[in-house]
Amino acid sequence: MYILEVTRGKKMLLTGSILIFGFMALAVFAPFIAPYDPDDVKVEKRLLPPGEHHLMGTDGFGRDIFSRVVFGTRYSLFLALVVVSINLLLGLMVGSIAGYFGGLIDELIMRIVDILLAFPNIILALCIVGVLGPSIQNLILALVALGWVGYTRVSRGLVLSIKEQGFIGAAKALGGSNMYIIMRHIIPNAFPPLLVLATLHVSHTILSIAALSFLGLGVQAPTPEWGAMLSEGKQFIFTHPHVMIFPGVAITLSVLSFNLLGEGLRDVLDPRAREVLNV
Amino acid sequence: MLLKITNLRVYFKSADGFVKAADGVDLELYPGEILGLVGETGSGKTVLGLAITRLLPKTAAVSGEVLYRGQNLLALPEEEMRKVRGRQVSMIFQNPLSSLNPALSIGEQIAEVLREHQGLKRKAAWQRAGELLELTGIPAKWIRSYPHELSGGMRQRAMIAIGLACAPSLLIADEPTRGLDVTIQVQIVELLHAVTKGVSPPRSMLLITHDLGVAAALTDRLAVMYAGKIVEYGRTGEVFRNPRHPYTRALLDSHPSNGLIATKGFSPSLINLPPGCSFHPRCKKARKKCAHEPPLVQRIGMDHGVRCFYA
Amino acid sequence: MLEVVGIKKVFTSGIFCRRSIEVVRGVSFRVNKGQTLGLVGESGCGKTTVGKMIVRLIEPTAGRILFNGIELTRLDPRKLRKLRPKIQIIFQDPDMAFNPRWKIRDSLGEPFKLNRLARGKEIIDRVLELIETVGLHPEHLNRYPFELSGGQLQRVALARVLALQPELIVADEPTSSLDVSVQAQVLTLLKELQRRFQFTCVFISHDLNVARWMSDRIAVMYRGKIVEEGKTESIFGSPRHPYTRALLGAILVPDPEAGRTWRVASLNNVSPEVNLEKAGGCSFQDRCPHVEKICREKEPPLTVPAPDHRVACHRFKDLVPVQANVTGKVCFL
Predict the structure, then answer these.
(1) Which value, to the nearest 10 degrees, does the dihedral of the CA atoms of residues B121, B123, B126, B130 take?
(2) N or C: less crowded end of chain B, CB within 10 Å?
(3) What ipTM was estimated for this complex?
(4) Which residues form the ABC transporter domain (chain B) (predicted)?
(5) Where are the beta strands (DSSP E) in chain B?
(6) Before A222, cis peptide (omega within 30)?
């Protein structure tokens, strides 16, 4: 039973990793892969259908959609990874402190977290970007403002259960300081389950970024970000659907690949999987 | 004969090779008898209990014969087996906290079994559940309590009540006293005695335990298991008075009442068993022969057998 | 030398509506250098909390703990950190005592690194020496905790503690999760190490039968208090408190001819919801077969029934003297 789960996990992990690796390669080698300059406007080549010269056709300004999708990987993926990493690290630090020390510190932090969790995510993000003005920095800020809270919650819970295990008491008795115990014992053990959560969150964040950009509050045109491209293409949805379809497919595929990776990681990192050999 | 196990093998496949949890086990259990299966963690004794009730994971490869009243349980279709479980043979698991459903009250859990297996109506099942709780020493007014509200001893009682729900002819109790305080252990031993020897006709029980004190207090006959094999069996008094296998001897000596005398070495991994007799690397009496020839069971008296060349 | 004077521990929970439970209700004892005190009682009696207070993993609410005459309970953090390596603890569950993501070699090296006792190559040598001291092989060093058995892990736990050359070891039910034959190995090792390194030991156990092999003196705890304390021989030879007698009677001897004494030894059953703090009187009253009026009214003080023996019971004089013989068989109650 467990063995089956592991191989299933491994398959998902493999598929997800290959896809993500592909996207990463696209992002890194974008200038060599893209046949055209993504910002090169050629009015005479407007709205060409997918064909021999333009693999995915051209958009309303005559720009090559394939090249724009390739360069878009840099924005969508990179931004999502940055946002999730900040959230993860911030949440893990704050959650570990709350869980480890407990008492008043814990109470204080968790009440703040509770208040923040009461805000509707995307609406607060809209407000932040709306007030501060649309830019990449403000987009990151908007997504971090509430994003870390979930990780704080989860990591506090993890820390509370890790803290009760004997090796924490042993480390304390052996002379470890609080900081040492948090950094060397607690965080390394709380990290793997959080990593699964974070991977699943990357896809969520890709969607949030695309949504905000679609609404004109995220990455601004003419930058080739997938959400922004969707937004630009929406006027042609009935006449020239290819303008929207290809960035849409890119978003779906990237979301799928991170979900696969996350689910695969979850199955593989599951402690039960390790016990297969100890019947 | 109520239960006759012949040449039972249970193997698990793992990355490093086959885990031979039970390797040619023969056992006999007579009606009304309590048979103790004694061995350490990892000796395969729990797997044996699971094999009889066919509750092993699907990855286990099982061969041999488990005859219950002349019927081979291993060959039974799953439908039929479900009828045997609970009604004929029921199992009391070792960790009541994880074996009981935390979301249901103990009353509901007993009543559920009764409705499922005996087709009792809701009200009748509930009333019978109350009776069973009283029988196992839990006040009937606690019928609505949840597992986490009970102490360890009370949880174990509730497990026994569930096991008894359909009045099975054979109880399999897997380490029923593990992790309990000594005073509670005695109470559970008393209870197990009452629900087997104390009913008429007496109920049979296969008692799986590592505690020789518990085995001495309850069992009629004893089988000692080491590394997936039965190394000695016999009447309990005979085995305790006159242990013939060096491992049985070592197990008795290590008991705190007998002076905590330690045996060197560790139990072997079930994947990499030593050649010859599995116990030879730890055995004081071992000679050359033990290292490459696996000993067979020798009968050394009335219903007393030992798997050792030099017994 | 360890001296514990009237320690108490009250656990409180909740910030707004506080609830408090007094887990340890004034415990005093002393252990002489190089000796072992067995602290025996059922789960929930507070024995583990006492152990954790001695190694300062838990702050006592009241009372004093003296170690070689130094009062640990009032020491400033800097001096405490210096003293800490000398007072060590071994936990009940060896599977949890090691960081699951570290190899055994890293866990064994940890005390050296933390206390700057050795570095680099020297750590490796010391770790190798330790692993052999506790009867394991150097190849075990490259394993992860989940690859070792409970008994092997408990040996590693002993090794890790020995790294600091402690003067006091609190062993909190070190073998309660192990099989009997493995228990014998680990306890034999612990005794052997104690003889070799001369540390003082507080041996916590729920099993009197095990504690007697390890201890020079035994203290029996019930609901946060010591109800009887004395030399091991006198606890076994002439147990005074009904609870101690019940514990002795609960020992299941591996001898089918022991006459099944267990059937008479059981106590009155106790329902967990009884609130004793309100009840007053002796904390054992609801389970005691010898309970009388005075037991319900007045809490029994610790009295001295014989030289070097203490018992907290109003009625110990009225109870029939009993004797437990060498094999642990007892017949009374």
Answers:
(1) -130
(2) N
(3) 0.86
(4) 3-252
(5) 3-14, 17-29, 34-38, 60-68, 71-72, 89-92, 170-174, 204-209, 221-226, 229-235, 298-301, 304-306
(6) yes
The pair of three-digit structure tokens given for residue C194, joined into one six-digit string:
């104690």
Residue ranges, comma separated, of all CATH 3.40.50.300 domains in chain C are 33-55+76-218
The structure's pTM equals 0.85
Rounded to 10 degrees, the C-alpha dihedral A226/A232/A234/A235 comes to -160
Domains and CATH numbers, chain A: 2-277 (1.10.3720.10)
- Pick from A246, A229, A241: nearest CA to A39: A229
Q: Which residues of chain C have a CB within 8 Å of the CB of B151? A: 272
The owner of tokens 């056709």 is: A57
Interchain CB contact of B143 with A (< 8 Å): no
Tell me how many helices (H) and strands (E) chain B has. 11, 12
Q: Which residues pair with C9 in a beta bridge?
A: C24
Q: What is the pLDDT of residues C281-327, one digit of tens each?
A: 888 888 888 888 898 888 899 999 889 999 999 988 888 776 554 44
Interface test with chain C among A100, A160, A167, by most C beta carbons within 10 Å:
A167
Cross-strand partners of B22 = B10
- Residue type at position A166: G
β-strand partners of C12: C20
A279–B12: do the CB atoms touch at under 8 Å? yes
Half-sphere exposure of B264 (CA within 13 A, CB side): 8
Domains of chain B: 3-76+199-306 (3.40.50.300)
- Of C163, C32, C146, C27, the C-alpha closest to C90 is C163
Nearest to C170 by CA among C251, C84, C236, C110: C84
Q: What is the pLDDT of residues C107-155, one digit of tens each?
A: 999 999 998 888 888 999 999 999 999 999 999 999 999 889 999 999 9
CATH class of the structural domain C33-55+76-218: alpha beta
Is the omega angle on the peptide bond into residue C272 within 30 degrees of 0, that is, cis?
Answer: no
- Pick from B42, B183, B261: CB nearest C267: B183
Burial status of residue A55 (CB atoms within 10 A of its CB: 0-12, 13-18, 19 or more) = middle
Token couple for C108: 């064994």
**Encoding tokens for residue C51?**
């152990």
pLDDT tens by residue, C223-254: 999 999 999 999 988 899 999 988 888 888 88
Task: List chain B residues with CB under 8 Å of A277.
Answer: 14-16, 19, 271
Query: Could you report the per-residue pLDDT of A161-184, keeping only the tens digit for each?
Result: 999 888 999 999 998 889 999 999
C101-119 pLDDT, tens digit per residue, is 899 999 999 999 998 888 8
- With CA atoms as reference, report the closest residue to A17 among A249, A258, A193: A258
